[in-house]
């Protein structure tokens, strides 16, 4: 029996922009809460605390790949969803989370003890509980995404982020150390899961169906391979930092990455969260599918590239003044990591488009090539320092960008030349702006205190980027000439 799921209220750009607004609002709050957690908690914690927490997250990485939404991805992608699909995905997630926890805790405990990191063992146990909590709520969240209920998801995300931040700060003030990070995540995840069940108005009403699970395996296997490679790719620099520089080195890399990821999530999450369900809805209409891909890339490139490039330019000045003294060296690491995320944000549309087209295994092939290049570069750069580890990630992303564009062309038919026409002008304008801001940062910071200096640099960057984008991007000039920021919402065939 098919599950009755309301169709989205609209199919065009106006509806897309409305949903983008809600997810953007949630991303702003989530970013501010995430940055606040770093800026506040680094005053009470030391790099080793973040390192121990990072070790625990590495321990559950494989389990989170299996239980973090892969099995429920057909709920967002399929044209028709049955109760058996929902029940099977729910119980499979729970079973996998329990099995992964049962394996992870003793194995990771032995490894941690052998490496001399006994303090990480109870934290690993707590991380296994976090994994189970997330696995419990994946199906109702996927059901809400399928319904494109982004307003409700945004409100829940805001409440969860703020509540988690409050819990983390209280625990840090009580001297809980690394457990303040665990407490933050526990509160955030519990609120997300409970709220998603309430909003989805769904609960499991049957057991798993073997035939349903077997039928979903071809698509799920591609998603699983892509997610596993993506997670391994993110783990590789963390493992390198731990091997060469211990929990302290991992802690510095974790804080820098956390700051960079908050900015990246803010600018890319609104489009990334909508990409799979929205593109899946249009996958059987090639013209609309390609138009939405173009819109998604433009939204990410024009908004996120300058934010990331600008932050990278001012990070050496901004970050040391914002974090505690123990973390003052993360400014340069953060700048490099932010630049690496320029490549990451565009890949969100790449992966969603190939998955929406039902070709997730092809996305895995692209990720596998990128991961191989990452490992080779880490082997060369990792012994040189934590900043060099971040640089290896940056270099890998930029070297493999053309290959990723070819994979998108092969799976969706969206021409490489058209991808470049969309992405290159904002990228060029953003990098030019970053170079100007970085050149100005020395004399400006010498003449003004930190806060006024940052204001001057941000204003200069905004003005320069707007001018450079107008010069570099014919699409932007055409939109401005035609009054097209309004027309964009009306002309469904503009791409």
Low-confidence stretches: 1-12, 487-495
Q: Could you tell me the number of beta strands?
A: 0
Order of helices and strands: HHHHHHHHHHHHHHHHHH
Q: Give the proportion of residues in helices.
A: over 70%
Silhouette: globular
Radius of gyration: 22 Å
Number of helices: 18
Strand content: under 5%
For the largest beta-sheet, the strand count, sense and barrel status come to: none
N-end to C-end Cα span: 38 Å
Which structural category fits the helices and strands?
Answer: mainly alpha
- The pLDDT mean sits at 81
Give descriptors for this structure.
495 residues; mainly alpha; 83% helix; disordered N terminus
Chart the SSEs and their pairings.
Blueprint: H1 13-41, H2 47-59, H3 61-67, H4 73-77, H5 83-115, H6 120-146, H7 150-173, H8 179-200, H9 210-282, H10 286-322, H11 330-356, H12 360-381, H13 386-399, H14 401-412, H15 416-447, H16 450-472, H17 474-481, H18 484-487
Helix pairs in contact: 1-7, 1-9, 2-6, 2-9, 3-5, 3-9, 5-6, 6-8, 7-8, 9-10, 9-11, 9-12, 9-13, 10-11, 10-15, 10-16, 11-12, 11-13, 11-14, 12-13, 12-14, 15-16
Description:
The protein has one domain (about 15-485). The chain is about 85% helix and about 0% strand. The protein contains 18 helices and no strands. α1 (about 15-40) packs across α9 (about 210-280) and α2 crosses α6 (about 120-145). The chain is globular. It starts with 12 loop residues before the first helix and ends in an 8-residue tail after the last helix. Mean pLDDT is about 80; it is low at about 1-10 and about 485-495.
């Amino acid at each position: 029996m098919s599950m009755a799921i309301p169709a989205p209220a609209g199919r065009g750009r106006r509806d897309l922009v409305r949903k983008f607004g809600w997810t953007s609002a949630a991303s702003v709050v989530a970013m501010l809460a995430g940055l606040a957690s770093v800026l506040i908690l680094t005053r009470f914690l030391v790099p080793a605390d973040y390192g121990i927490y990072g070790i625990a997250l590495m321990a559950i990485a494989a389990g989170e790949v299996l239980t973090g939404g892969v099995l429920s991805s057909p709920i967002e992608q399929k044209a028709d969803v049955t109760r058996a699909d929902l029940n099977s995905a729910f119980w499979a997630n729970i079973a996998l989370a329990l099995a992964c926890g049962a394996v992870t805790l003793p194995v990771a405990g032995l490894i941690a003890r052998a490496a001399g990191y006994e303090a990480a063992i109870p934290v690993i146990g707590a991380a296994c509980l976090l994994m189970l909590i997330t696995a419990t709520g994946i199906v109702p969240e996927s059901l809400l995404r399928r319904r494109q209920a982004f307003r409700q998801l945004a409100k829940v995300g805001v409440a969860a982020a703020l509540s988690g931040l409050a819990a983390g700060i209280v625990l840090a003030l009580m001297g809980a150390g690394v457990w303040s990070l665990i407490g933050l995540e526990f509160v955030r995840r519990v609120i997300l899961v409970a709220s998603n069940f309430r909003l989805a108005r769904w609960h499991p009403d049957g057991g798993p169906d073997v035939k349903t699970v077997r039928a979903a395996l071809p698509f799920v296997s591609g998603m699983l391979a892509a997610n596993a490679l993506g997670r391994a790719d993110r783990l590789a620099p963390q493992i390198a930092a731990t091997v060469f520089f211990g929990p302290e080195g991992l802690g510095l890399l974790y804080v820098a990455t956390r700051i960079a990821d908050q900015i990246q999530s803010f600018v890319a999450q609104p489009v990334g969260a909508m990409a799979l369900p929205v593109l899946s809805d249009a996958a059987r209409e090639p013209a609309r599918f390609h138009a939405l891909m173009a819109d998604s890339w433009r939204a990410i490139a024009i908004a996120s590239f300058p934010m990331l490039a600008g932050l990278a330019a001012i990070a050496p000045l901004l970050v040391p003044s914002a974090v505690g003294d123990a973390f003052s060296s993360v400014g340069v690491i953060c700048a490099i990591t932010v630049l690496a995320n320029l490549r990451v944000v565009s890949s969100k549309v790449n992966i969603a488009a190939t998955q929406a087209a039902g070709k997730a295994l092809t996305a895995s092939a692209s990720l596998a090539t990128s991961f191989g290049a990452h490992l080779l570069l880490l082997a060369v750069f990792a012994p040189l320092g934590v900043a060099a580890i971040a640089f290896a990630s940056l270099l890998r992303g930029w070297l493999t960008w053309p290959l990723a564009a070819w994979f998108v062309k092969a799976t969706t038919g969206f021409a490489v030349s058209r991808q470049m026409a969309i992405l290159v002008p904002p990228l060029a304008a953003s990098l030019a702006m970053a170079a100007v801001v970085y050149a100005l940062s020395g004399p400006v910071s010498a003449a003004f205190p930190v806060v006024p200096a940052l204001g001057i640099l941000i204003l200069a960057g905004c003005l320069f980027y707007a001018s450079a984008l107008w010069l570099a991007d014919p699409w932007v000039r055409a939109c401005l000439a035609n009054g097209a920021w309004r027309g964009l919402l009306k002309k469904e065939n503009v791409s």
